[in-house]
Amino acid sequence: MQKRYGFEISSAKLVCFLHIFLIIFLIGCARNGYDPSKITHRPRIFLDGGPPIPILDEYDIAGTQLGSFTDIFNPGEEARIYGIWVGLDRRAAMNLQKETAKNIGRNLNLVVNGSVVGLHPIEATITNGFIPFMFTHRRSEKEVYSFYQKLETSVRQIQLELQNLRN
Fold first, then answer.
1. Do the beta carbons of residue 144 and residue 162 sit within 8 Å?
2. Are residues 4 and 65 in the same domain?
3. For each successive 10 residues of the chain (167 residues), what is the average pLDDT?
4. Which pTM was predicted?
5. What is the rounded CA–CA span in Å between residue 84 and residue 57?
6. According to the model, what pLDDT value does residue 148 have?
7. Among positive and negative, which fits the CA dihedral 36, 89, 51, 152?
8. Considering its fold, how many domains does the chain have in total?
9. 104 and 74 in a common domain
10. What's residue 96's pLDDT?
11. Looking at residue 23, what is its pLDDT?
């Protein structure tokens, strides 16, 4: 038995304490908030008229942003057109640059859970890794925000899934 700091600790208790501390520490490091049940939207990007293989999938997407445009010729509430800006990781951005350089004049389709939800006409090579997609159908503001919230949550959870796979 060792007597330090006014109390006694046996070697067995010390080893047990260190094992428990190590287990708690490792579990705490491994948990990063990943919850697979929160992945409800798996976005993929296809080339319109191309093979049914996505040029970019959900693991290439680094983040999303919601944006809107206003139709200046129509002053009503229904004049607001919403879109999703998709940001890609570095490797995917380089792949996107190559694909858009070869396919100017075609469209990119944003497909979520098997349905085309957005499109982007390729007018020039995309060099910055961001793709603005306009929704293919008009949606109410409430529907847009609900969809975006689910998409953003899914993208964040997919990034955490990737992080877990790398560790």
1. no
2. no
3. 58 67 58 83 94 93 90 72 93 96 96 94 96 90 93 94 85
4. 0.76
5. 16
6. 95
7. positive
8. 2
9. yes
10. 96
11. 66
Q: Are residues 25 and 70 in the same domain?
A: no
Kindly report the CATH number assigned to the domain that includes residue 69.
3.30.1360.200
Residue 133 has a pLDDT of: 95
Nearest CA to 154 out of 35, 60, 31, 65 is that of: 35
Using CA atoms, how far apart are residues 60 and 147, in angstroms rounded to an integer? Answer: 20
The CA-CA-CA angle for residues 139, 147, 145, to 5°, reads: 70
Identify the pLDDT of residue 24.
66
Do 1 and 69 lie in one domain? The reply is: no
Residue that is written with structure tokens 């998409």 in the block: 151
Query: Do 74 and 16 have their domain in common?
Result: no
Q: Domain span at residue 13?
A: 1-31
142 and 92 belong to one structural domain: yes
Residue with tokens 């944003």: 110
117, amino acid identity: V
Identify the pLDDT of residue 167.
74
